[in-house]
């Protein structure tokens, strides 16, 4: 009953925000809408397609053809259901995250049982009880439903709502050992936004762990199914566009080359606005390698036994470093953090990070108004806030990873800190 009331209240808040006078303001905010996920651009793409104009010939529309055709038919047949549809999709995302966290609890219980004999005697009190594990799922649900970032993302009717749903469905499917749905959902999310391609690594590891088969065979099967699904989606998209692959440049190409430098909460726009043109290719490659490839191998090698933590960190890093991020991306990975509630006592920067989130979230719209409307500030002010916001997120992720390592060390070696009978301090380098 309590969960139903949560869904009902969260849904009513979202639906109400879509019908207030300030809805246009919400849906056009630079923190919420980007050139990739904007509802305004989606409407324009559908309008062009309806009038037999290729929406990919200009620079207005950057969604996949599959999204284009789905919303084309919805707007033709039943446009009045769109606010309700976005609300229900966001609530479904919350439900899938809840179910995924339940599966994570079962996995954590099993892994805790396996290492019981290796735990130091004075650290056994750190083992998680059933009640502690079960309450994590409720926190995941509550954080997603009532996080202002998630609420505003849904109220703005951005297509990030659908991306979050696909990623949540992929994690839920993988945690249950369902290979084909997991790969299909990762492929759909990748086809829409490219950066979710990183998730195939933790999904492959998680599927191998859950299904308890030959790891190498499982990895190969997962990768093969993912490639086939992604290839099929690319073919279907070309079929929708009458056999033309022109859409690839205006979707994947747009994400990778970053031609639209409208300000957002990311790091790309300011650097490429200020940069000399002949250095652009070098820095685009460096930024995209940082977002897509740099962290996958080292993090996988270190956290291969914790695929859900690996997935959480990769989702967070892509939300920080992608070319066109929005608050919906941030709200999604914040909802995953309560699964690691048992690590919070080992985290040292919670207060600093929390304050930074609150301050930058309040300062962002304020500085934007001063810059765009009052003319009493400039781009440096707004970028300073977004840079602080990104820094706070990086501190949060590194603190979480260090907390995991500290807890792992304490479980194996005990909580006492003595070297040669003298008090010692644990320092991570």
What does this 3D model show about the protein?
By secondary structure, the chain is an all-alpha fold. The chain contains 19 helices and two strands. The protein has helices at 2-17, 23-28, 39-50, 65-77, 82-114, 130-146, 148-155, 160-175, 179-193, 200-211, 215-240, 247-257, 268-274, 280-292, 296-303, 307-321, 327-336, 350-374, 379-413; strands at 418-419, 422-423. It has a two-stranded antiparallel ribbon. A hairpin with a 2-residue loop joins strand 1 (418-419) and strand 2. Helix 15 packs antiparallel against helix 16. 41% of the residues are buried.
Characterize this entry briefly:
The chain has helices at 2-17, 23-28, 39-50, 65-77, 82-114, 130-146, 148-155, 160-175, 179-193, 200-211, 215-240, 247-257, 268-274, 280-292, 296-303, 307-321, 327-336, 350-374, 379-413; strands at residues 418-419, 422-423. The chain is mainly α. A hairpin with a 2-residue loop joins β1 and β2.
């Amino acid at each position: 009953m309590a969960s139903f009331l949560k869904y009902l209240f969260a849904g009513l808040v979202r639906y109400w925000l879509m019908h207030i006078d300030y809805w246009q303001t919400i849906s056009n905010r630079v923190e919420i809408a980007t050139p990739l996920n904007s509802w305004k651009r989606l409407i324009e793409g559908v309008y062009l397609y309806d009038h037999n104009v290729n929406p990919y010939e200009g620079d207005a529309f950057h969604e996949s053809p599959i999204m284009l055709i789905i919303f084309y038919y919805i707007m033709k047949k039943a446009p009045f259901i769109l606010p309700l549809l976005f609300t229900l999709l966001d609530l479904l995302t919350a439900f899938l995250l809840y179910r995924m966290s339940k599966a994570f609890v079962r996995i954590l219980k099993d892994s805790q049982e396996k290492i019981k004999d290796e735990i130091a005697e004075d650290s056994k009190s750190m083992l998680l009880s059933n009640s502690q594990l079960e309450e994590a799922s409720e926190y995941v649900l509550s954080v997603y439903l009532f996080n202002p970032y998630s609420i505003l993302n849904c109220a703005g009717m951005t297509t990030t709502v659908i991306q979050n749903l696909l990623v949540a469905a992929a994690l839920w499917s993988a945690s249950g050992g369902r290979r084909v749905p997991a790969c299909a959902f990762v492929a759909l999310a990748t086809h829409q936004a490219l950066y979710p391609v990183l998730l195939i690594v933790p999904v492959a590891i998680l599927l191998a762990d859950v299904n308890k088969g030959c790891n190498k065979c499982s990895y190969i099967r997962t990768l093969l199914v993912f490639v086939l699904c992604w290839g099929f989606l690319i073919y279907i998209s070309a079929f929708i566009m009458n056999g033309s692959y022109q859409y690839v440049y205006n979707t994947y190409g747009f994400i990778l080359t970053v031609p639209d430098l409208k300000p957002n909460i990311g790091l790309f726009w300011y650097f490429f606005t200020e940069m000399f043109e002949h250095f652009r290719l070098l820095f685009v490659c460096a930024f995209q390698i940082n977002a897509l490839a740099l962290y996958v191998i080292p993090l996988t090698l270190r956290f291969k036994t914790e695929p859900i933590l690996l997935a959480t960190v990769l989702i967070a890093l892509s939300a920080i470093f992608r070319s066109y991020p929005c608050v919906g991306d941030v709200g999604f990975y914040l909802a995953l953090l309560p699964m690691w509630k048992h690590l919070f006592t080992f985290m040292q920067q919670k207060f600093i990070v929390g304050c930074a989130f609150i301050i930058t979230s309040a300062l962002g719209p304020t500085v934007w108004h001063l810059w765009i409307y009052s003319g009493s500030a400039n781009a440096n002010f707004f970028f300073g806030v977004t840079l602080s916001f990104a820094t706070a997120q990086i501190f949060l992720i590194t603190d979480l990873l260090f907390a995991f390592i500290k807890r792992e060390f304490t479980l194996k070696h005990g909580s006492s800190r003595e070297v040669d009978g003298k008090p010692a301090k644990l320092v991570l380098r």
